[in-house]
Amino acid sequence: MVEGSYGADLIYGGAGDDLLSGGDENDTLIGGTGNDRIHGGLGADVILCGRGDDQVWGGDENEIVKGGAGNDMLDGGRDKDRLYGGTGDDLLIGGGRDDSLIGGDGDDELRGDNGTDRINGGLGNDVMQGGFGPDVFMYRDRDFGEDVILDFQDGLDRLNVKGLIAGFGAVTIEQNGTDAIVSFAGGEIV
């Protein structure tokens, strides 16, 4: 186990399955290759995963967490976090405040939890859940597959499809049981 101390630490795991833990300040933790377990600790940390199936738990401040190649679990913690999944089938959990979750490549699961979250599944067939609060589900430049939004709340949550459609005439919305299917040239959102 490599553990930070007081002050801003730079902690690098290297090759192999590492356990890294940040200290009391704003730390940078780099997992390297292997299946790493990384804990952010106190402070606003930057956590970078490498190749491998990594597990990351942020701390109580504003974290930036970037997954790498592999099936990662990224939990931002309690504050305003920015989570980037990378390649692989990732699980991103925002936590208690206004988080930004971007899935990347692969079939990802993104959970915003509390707050006003901005969620973009990226490439692949993703499952997204905003949680409590008004959330924005973002779709950009055809960077998605067949995504599912589990808890879209009409009048509260929003779909942002900037750059995908020429106008509202190119969009159709159909009711299918309890689901709404939004279709346009090049894709659909359930």
Can you tell me about this structure?
The protein is an all-beta fold and 190 residues long. It contains no helices and 21 strands. The termini are far apart.
What's the structural blueprint in terms of helices and strands?
Blueprint: E1 2-3, E2 10-12, E3 19-21, E4 28-30, E5 37-39, E6 46-48, E7 55-57, E8 64-66, E9 73-75, E10 82-84, E11 91-93, E12 100-102, E13 109-111, E14 118-120, E15 127-129, E16 136-138, E17 148-149, E18 158-160, E19 171-176, E20 179-184, E21 187-189
What would CATH call the architecture? 2 Solenoid
List the total number of helices: 0
Helix content: under 10%
Main β-sheet, in a few words?
Answer: 9 strands, parallel
Mean of pLDDT: 88
State the distance separating the first and last CA atoms: 43 Å
What fold name stands as the CATH topology?
A: Alkaline Protease, subunit P, domain 1
Strand portion:
35-45%
Highest CATH level, the class: Mainly Beta
Query: What is the number of domains?
Result: 1
Q: Structural class from helices and strands?
A: mainly beta
- The arrangement of helices and strands along the chain is EEEEEEEEEEEEEEEEEEEEE
Number of strands: 21
Strand order of the largest sheet: 1-3-5-7-9-11-13-15-17
Any idea what the radius of gyration is? Answer: 18 Å
- Low-confidence parts: none
